[in-house]
Protein 1
Amino acid sequence: QVRLVESGGGLVQPGGSLRLSCAASRSIFSIYRVGWYRQAPGKQRELVATFTVGGETNYAASVKDRFTISIVNAKNTVDLQMDSLKPEDTADYYCYARDYGPGDEDDYWGHGTQVTVSS
């Protein structure tokens, strides 16, 4: 029902910035919830930021006031602007969507994009 493709990962110095983009196969506003998760090697996947229909946003405490999630309407895209990056932000970042059909719910994941923060 929803196809997700991430882009924008790379290598950046501590204190620098990156912008991640997730292109969805249909309008973000037709999907219940979209967002970003991340997973460091050997660790569990954790929530970074989400956007829910109606405008509610949630952020992990570790990224609050540094990361911003936003919707780019013309390209069916959800962006994650990451500022003041720290080495502990190093991880694979995954785009996520939850969609509701009649009597069910389905979760979708992109294949991930790598972010490395190092001097």
Protein 2
Amino acid sequence: QVQLVESGGGLVQPGGSLRLSCTTSKSIFNAMAWYRQAPGKERDLVARITSSSSTNYADSVKGRFTISRDNAKNTVYLQMNSLKLEDTAVYYCNIHPPFRDYWGQGTQVTVSS
């Protein structure tokens, strides 16, 4: 059973930055992605990275967020800059398309002044 553990969330002011990490218990060669779920809303795709490191982003984060992966460390990152209030959510990583058994606890990102 593969486990994915997210970390790096926290409280940040608007305009600030955070870097999230997702470490997997085994090597994963699928496309990986970050998702987020705000209170009362559905879980949405934020960013995706293929095994060859091609990337895609939700329109709402383009130009502000960067996804990357280090296969040697079994880790996927999400660098988040110029954070906005609406980026507040629990952030999760998973393969893309997501596999239900891989959902972890997520990491809370709160953007507040």
